[in-house]
Design brief:
six-stranded mixed beta sheet; 38% helix; alpha/beta; 6 helices; globular
Length: 194
Amino acid sequence: LSDRIPRRLDATLRERLQTLARSADVTLNTVIQFAWGLLLARHTGREDVVFGATVSGRPPEIEDVESMTGLFINTLPVRVDLREGGTVRQALARLQAEQAKLTAHQHLGLADIQRSAGAGELFDTLLVFENYFVDGEGLRRAERSGELTVTGSEHTDATHYPLTLAVVPGGHLTLEYRPDLFGPDQAAALLDRL
């Protein structure tokens, strides 16, 4: 099982990240992906890194998919190649364009992707950008009806990857790390460099 280090980005940094995303005409997810790729590149000494990113969505080609219950998530490889040079904004635009190309294949299983690539493990770190919708007003209505009381929410998950960065809107970050591979000080230092 992994150990966890939570962090909350201060309001100034959150606004700077949002401003960068808007000015570069990319999503906040793309900015976070680039930052994670840059951190991995610096940590490993490589200019070309690949990590996994969790995606979600319901494939429109499946009839009645909108009425199906269950998780429609997958993990896709994300490549950040710093050898291409250019400005940060250009790198962000390239990364977002690459991610847009993957959208058509986001439902292809990771094992199938690995087989197609002709390689074993494609990555050993994971980035999860959690941007799912929570119907706050619906929850409040249910509470007012007296039939349901929500006292809080929490989730627990685990992966086999040595490092997993989970990002939740509002500036909440959690770095999960395998304690057999990283000490708490090493993991905290990585998160601080992000």
